[in-house]
Design a protein that fits this description.
Layout lengths: L2 E8 L4 E6 L2 E11 L10 E8 L1 H9 L5 E13 L4 E15 L9
Parallel strand pairs: 4-6
Antiparallel strand pairs: 1-3, 1-5, 2-3, 3-4, 5-6
């Protein structure tokens, strides 16, 4: 089993994949790991997926720019035709949710 715990920042708005009676049952958010001040050169893109209560957390709290810690199962896939690599985490826990870095106040 590939259990992992990472600090991430949501790079996009969350996406509801499956819902029932207006409540998300399965959702995902695109995130980046290892973003440095120098830029995204060393950043690792991945998709965080969650179901049930975690799907609701993804949709309501993980807006673009929000930092969070995720624990879950890491999956890796390489598309043979293009050699494109993708990583995803099926979340077991999402904690330490922090709002986006604030913009500088306007003068």
């Amino acid at each position: 089993m590939n259990q992992i715990k990472l600090s991430l920042r949501a790079a996009d708005e969350p996406r509801t994949i499956k819902e029932e009676a207006g409540m998300p049952l399965f959702a995902s958010v695109f995130a980046l790991h290892n973003v440095t001040k120098a830029g995204r050169k060393e950043a690792i893109p991945l998709t965080v997926k969650g179901s049930q209560d975690l799907a609701r957390t993804l949709v309501t709290e993980l807006r673009k720019g929000v930092a969070f810690v995720v624990e879950g199962q890491l999956a890796y896939f390489r598309k043979p035709e293009t050699n494109r690599e993708t990583y995803s985490i099926l979340a077991d826990h999402i904690t330490d949710i922090l709002p986006p870095k604030s913009c500088k106040p306007m003068p």
